[in-house]
Amino acid sequence: MSATTNPSPRKAVVRILHLEDSRVDHALVKFALQRSQLACELVLVDTMEDLRLQLETGSFDIVLADYHLPGFTGLDGWDLAHALRPELPFVVLSGAIGEAAAVEAMHRGVSDYLLKDNMHRLAHVIERALEVSETRRAKAVADAELADSRQRLAELAEHLQASIEQERSDIAREIHDDIGGALTAVKLDLALVGRHTQDPAMKRHVQSAMEMLQHALGASQRIMLNLRPPILDQGLVAAVQWLAASFERRTGIRVVVRRSAEVIDVSRELQLVAYRTAQEALTNVTKHAQASAVTIELSDLEGVLTLEVKDNGRGLDPQALRKEKSFGLLGLRERAAKVDGWLDVSSSPRGTSVILSVPLQSFSHPISDDMNQE
User: Fold this and answer.
1) Which of 34, 107, 169, 229 has its CA 20 to 30 A from that of 80?
2) Residues 102-130: pLDDT tens digits?
3) pTM of the entire structure?
4) Could you report the per-residue pLDDT of 225-237, keeping only the tens digit for each?
5) Considering only CA atoms, which of 277, 282, 219, 275 is closest in space to residue 253?
6) Strand pairing of 62-65 and 293-299?
């Protein structure tokens, strides 16, 4: 085993582990690198045991290996180096390597190969291998940082969704307890005034106030139900049916609900995701579709919960589906991803379809063969 150093103030020293059984060829490599003015340090090994020891204990930037060695080949050295130091670039330098062997070496991940007849190109090959390795390393770091960023964004989105649902629930409770209670008390007082007055004009005012108050009570209850529908306690099918009926009464757009079973047993979290998806899809129908009919299909066939909301409206502009501020669709996609599902939105001049699909981990109820139509 031998070592030599060729210092240079211009560059950091490249530490090279040289796998070679010929001292003459090792000297030729040193000479070629000296002539190219590559600042480097070479450590020579000629056995697999020494190669392993240096890889485990030494600090190297690159491995330079002969192809034909006593009892093994450069590719055996590559396998060992890749197992111990997968990030380390590996260059095969051989006096005679066939085309098939060269192709196999590159296919297995060797950084590069060079014939000893072209020793004058060795420094260039080493520098190129180091640059490629550094680029890959930087890309791996960037990919890891991007994956971490995406994970943190997903966690933030999940936290925000949970916070939103909690706030919805709190606001609904306050509307019910405070606003609803106050409006009910005012209604009782007005009714008392109406019973004790004989003035026709006062009775008309009381009656007008009662009508306005009843409208306010209805609005507060409608807002409360949208924020936190207690119908979810009756199950997903009942909640979607109630949502569809409310939408039909409010807009006059006919809604048909089809389901694979009268009861679809899923977790509370998944119920909320499916319900909010249907709610947002119906909201989009009101805002954009100009539709006259909507079909909602709810199924748990083949172990996958599928919710499709389809309208016969004018469709969406393809650019609208890719707008940066399409927060409604982005929110739905985040909700779907939270429960390991996905959301598909397709649109044409014949209408728009929003499909939520979530694989179910467990299944506890029988499935009917035919879809029941409401």
Assistant:
1) 34
2) 778 888 888 888 888 888 899 999 999 99
3) 0.49
4) 667 677 778 889 9
5) 282
6) unpaired
